Amino acid sequence: MVELDGSVGEGGGQIVRSALTLALMTGQPFKLVNIRSGRSRPGLQPQHVTCVKAAAEVGRARFKGGEVGSTTLYFEPHQVQAGQYRWDIRTAGAVSLVLQTIYLPLLLRTTQPSEVVITGGTHVPNAPCVHFLQLTWSAYLLRMGLKVAVELVRPGFYPRGGGQIRVLLEPAPAVLPLQLLDCPHLDTATVWSACAGLPRSVAERQAQRLKERLHAESLKTVVQVEQWQALSPGTMAAVVFRQTPVPTLFFALGERGKPAEAVADEAAEEALAFLHSQAPVDPHSADQLLLPLAFSQQSSAFRTSTITRHLVTNAHVVRTFLPISINLQGEEGTSGIVHIGSVL
Fold this sequence. Notes:
Layout: E1 2-5, H1 13-26, E2 30-33, H2 46-58, E3 62-64, E4 73-76, E5 84-88, H3 95-108, E6 114-120, H4 130-143, E7 147-154, E8 163-170, E9 179-180, E10 188-196, H5 200-215, E11 220-228, E12 234-241, E13 248-253, H6 260-277, H7 283-294, E14 300-304, H8 309-321, E15 326-329, E16 336-340
Parallel strand pairs: 1-2, 5-6, 9-14, 10-11
Antiparallel strand pairs: 2-4, 3-4, 6-8, 7-8, 10-12, 12-13, 14-16, 15-16
Family: Belongs to the RNA 3'-terminal cyclase family. Type 1 subfamily.
Protein name: RNA 3'-terminal phosphate cyclase
GO molecular function, one term: ATP binding
């Protein structure tokens, strides 16, 4: 049995999700202790519980400790099966993180297509929004020969959630490697601003501020402003670079008392930091690429704009399950190159 300490590194829900994925992929049971022990609310929260239950359903697994507040989890996987799955987090917990827990086994350990419907938060803090999944994450997967189609049925913001995605997953015979060390010159960006349950002028203010920030960096812009329907009011301000190896989206979310301009500034700061790094892979994609590339039969290498604590932690979890070489060339918080060898 693989044993892991949930307080290591980033110390959050990522360790839970990656362990679940790797258990389903390798067939190895695990024991995870000290789950989110350093957080203000330690242990599993509703979205983590949904991840555990989703992984157990997909992998016909047995588990112990998969309830809210649990700081220890035992998980024993069996056969991964394709099918039609529906999960409701029942809070604004991130639907994207549930999907990222179970997508790889459904792609690589089954022979039939699967359909997944997940209800919860589609645009919530500390998680990829659904538009990131559609534009950036799924595009990277396609470069690796993995087909995942993500449909936004309806958006869901904090605190009520209620958003929904429908995902189609096609089984794949193998994972293609990536070699992404250089970034083309970026001179154009898409400004994408949206709001739900708020006046359109809020989204327009976000878009205007983003335009000003990007024009100051000599970037040409294309502007897209939208209004959505959702159970809770919310806003999103985003920047998309489409000249990168895949369309790369950076976003920020509104919250009560946060001016539209501050939302735009948050998205702009992250996008411009990536621009100035001249790296092809954004920091959010970097740690998400580790899991699929760990199962490629060939070595991969990519340069990321920032080596994050999430990336370092995910590399540790992957090495715990697999006899694989993962080398991070660079210091945490700086740009660097990630080398991923094939399984020994």
